[in-house]
Please model this.
Amino acid sequence: MLEVEDLRVTYGGVTALDGIKLSVPDKGITAVLGPNGAGKSTLLKTIAGLVKPDAGRISFRGASLLGVAPEAIVRRGISMVPEGGGVIRELTVDENLRVVQPKKRQGPDGKSAGKSGIDEVMELFPPLAARRHNAAHSLSGGERQMLAVGRALVSRADLLLLDEPSLGLAPKFVTLIMQTVRKLCVERNISVLLVEQNARSALSIADQAMLLSAGRTIAARAAGDLAKNEELWHAYLGY
Amino acid sequence: MTVLERIQSRGTLLTHGLLGVLFIVAVGVVIWLLDSVNGFIVYQLSSVTYIAIAAAGLTVLTGQNGQLSLGHGALMAIGAYTTALVLKTFTDLNPAIVMVASILVTAVASIVVGAAAARLRGPYLAGATLGLAVGLPGVAIRFSSVFHGDQGLTVPALSSPDALSDVPAEVWLAWVGLIPAAVTFVLLANLLKTRYGRDFRAIREDEVASALHGIRVSRTQVIAFVLSGACAGLAGSLMAYTSNLAAPGSFPLTLSLQLLAAIVIGGLGTLPGAVWGSLVIVFAPDWIGTLNDAMKLPSNVRDELPLALFGVVFIVAMLAFPYGIQGGLRRLIAWRAGRRRAAAAQA
Model:
């Protein structure tokens, strides 16, 4: 679905990504792991169009994403959830979801199926339903992540880019978010690219994983294999 | 179901439209009655109509979309000069057509300004629009063969139709001003409830997050600017009709700053706030002048004091109502509702 080749990104002379290669399949969860400063977030931002790469190729369903504006990338079916959720704080939960709602979504029966997307999110995340008409800045960190994932759902994204969804969350919410991501992935054929420092919880739901360090790919293999490789754990993830 | 609820169920535009018509009729009658008491107040009220239109446009741009403009006085000038030039060629043209022409010309000019503005942020945007406010009146002086320089262009006075020939001129002018003002407020109130209103606010809050929500940020910012500019153009056209003149001196930098002051003191980002602010902007200087004259101060103090007092009024108002007059009213209403609930709970 998503192919990244020889991706190089520098910030004012400092190399953040140094020739990354990545292939995200049509469905399943791909985890990107690595220590602080490895370039994990930069990778997601570059795919989402927020950062311009110096070299390399990014293609989504065969079409290049280079030079495409972030809002246009969203419309092609890639939804990014940045660190902290990237919700719009002054808008209500309902309005946050309405913003991404496609203007007129024609269902198979020709009827507008627009509203159901938001209702689905409310069913999926009961805590959000209770806060539906509250401003997003009043949400807890966990609720905010739920809203961010819900936003991807309403926009009918095919590829979800998740940046550290577990950051600063209570363990209860980490589990809920991870389980929901897994569920969405299976039930709706959504492909997920998950960036995490919390390697254990990420590997527990991922199908494949890659390990980044200093802007380079150290390893890319099935999640189960990476979880068992003690040498890599010790060297790069510090366990 | 009450009548109001039944109307509301038919849609927001109808509700707002009916409120607008009621507003026109109510204020129209008040103006009619007021004229026999004080004709000058009626003349001032027609100034309120065009200041309120411009302020409404600015509050959508600055309050809702987060783009600061110090140049809306210049956009009003474009509307006023369009009106003057159109009327120079077609003397008896219907005011509605003249106003639409002014709106269109100003909207086109706003596309250019808005496209530049969408690339600028914060102080840079303020600086660029400030340049517009300072520079544009100079165009009228540079090309004086078309715009008649400092003298400006005269605009023929609006005359009431023969059937209403008993209506005094200033009443007719205020009535004519009320209609575009009500239409502007109805349309803007409606627009803010749609996808555009949501997108405007999303961008004000966080441009990066908005882009990740799939909002075309630059395009939406230009749309907000054009919308706001169109309001300024309409306001300029009405101003030209009211003062019978389009001249550079009518559009000083202070006009742009007054508009900004109006929306802040009225309650930034709220449409009723634009009305409150416009009332303050039009009536406060006059009241301050009266007060000043009554104090019988030496002439050097008397000449300088009104501006200082105007500033004091603003500072005190902002200390008392940090969210403007509309914010203060909302708090008052919420406080009273809370007391009523508490009283009901006790009983």
About this structure: The first strand of chain A starts at residue 2 and ends at 11.
